[in-house]
């Protein structure tokens, strides 16, 4: 079961706008247990560059594409906030990584 890691960054002067949009986004895209488990729903840190948020989802077998589409749709809700950027990465579990080398 792979993991989807999201990392978002935005200027600290956009915190209220991002927080409001986050509440809208989770109302529209609540956690979907059919696709996976939220290991870290949202962990937040302030930096000298602004605010940084990470999230981690453990995806259920066979649900990676659907889970990635869902995350991308949710993150698209932030696109018009000036300075908001994000990445979405797929991480393999150790077991999956070992299988790629025949172990």
Provide keyphrases for this structure.
103 residues; alpha+beta; Alpha-Beta Plaits; 3 helices; 4 strands
Q: Describe it for me?
A:
It is a single chain. Helices cover 33% and strands 36% of the residues. By secondary structure, it is α+β, with helices and mostly antiparallel strands. It has a single domain, classed as ACT domain (Alpha-Beta Plaits, 2-Layer Sandwich). It has a 4-stranded antiparallel beta sheet with strand order 2-3-1-4, with helices on one face. β2 and β3 form a beta hairpin. The longest helix has 14 residues. It starts with a strand and ends with a helix. The mean pLDDT is 96.
Number of helices: 3
Radius of gyration: 15 Å
Order of helices and strands: EHEEHEH
Say how many strands there are.
Answer: 4
- How is the CATH topology named? Alpha-Beta Plaits
Q: What coarse outline follows from CA principal-axis ratios? A: globular
Question: Topology of this structure?
Answer:
Layout: E1 3-10, H1 15-28, E2 36-47, E3 50-59, H2 64-76, E4 85-91, H3 94-100
Antiparallel strand pairs: 1-3, 1-4, 2-3
Quick rundown:
The chain has 103 residues and is α+β, with helices and mostly antiparallel strands. The protein has helices spanning 15-28, 64-76, 94-100, and strands spanning 3-10, 36-47, 50-59, 85-91.
């Amino acid at each position: 079961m792979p993991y989807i890691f999201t990392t978002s960054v935005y200027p600290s002067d956009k915190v209220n706008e991002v927080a409001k949009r986050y509440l809208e986004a989770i109302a529209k895209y609540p956690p979907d247990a059919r696709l996976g488990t939220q290991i870290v729903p949202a962990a937040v840190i302030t930096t000298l560059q602004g605010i940084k948020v990470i999230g981690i989802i453990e995806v259920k077998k066979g649900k990676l594409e659907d889970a990635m589409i869902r995350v991308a749709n949710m993150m698209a809700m932030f696109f018009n906030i000036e300075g908001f950027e994000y990445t979405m990465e797929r991480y393999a579990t150790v077991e999956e990584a070992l299988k790629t080398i025949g172990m």
